[in-house]
Amino acid sequence: MSETSDSQSIGTIDPAYIRLIRDLMAAHDTPHRSLAEKTGISKSRLGRILHQTPQKRLSMTVDELEAILDALGTNILKAFLRTEALRDLDPSDHARYESVLNLVGDIVKDLGQELVKTLENMNGIDGTEPQPHWVGILRNGWIEDIAKAVAFVMGRRTVITQRDELWR
């Protein structure tokens, strides 16, 4: 990645995203030098982009953010979901939700395309039907379905664990 990318500058990035990047670097045991090699961003530029002091940070480009996140095993969508979902939680609770937020990211990534395919098969939807107040209804239905699926899996896991304990 060149130092003078044509990519759009993000400008001042929310400190929560810098914390996420630093957390991912620590979790993957990835020092600046290794991240620089993986991303093609110079070590000195990475240091300035990820500086601990917000006033000393340089703006990063969208391409740089994507490269950094990709090198750390994630993407912009998952970073957004994680940062926004965990914003008000104590950092010690974050690890409990990592896997579920990664699953949500994988679901959401293809959700738009799958929804368009489904609506195309319904014939007749012209784009005027969806209304802003549907957001709450759809979100609540989605969360309810996910909670039911998680409860089902947890119930199956309990039954399997109990069965295995009987045979010991």
From TrEMBL:
It holds the Pfam family HTH_26. Transmembrane segments: none annotated. It comes from the Bacteria. SUPFAM superfamilies: lambda repressor-like DNA-binding domains. Residues 21-76 form the HTH cro/C1-type domain. This is Helix-turn-helix domain-containing protein. The lineage of its organism: Bacteria, Pseudomonadati, Pseudomonadota, Alphaproteobacteria, Sphingomonadales.
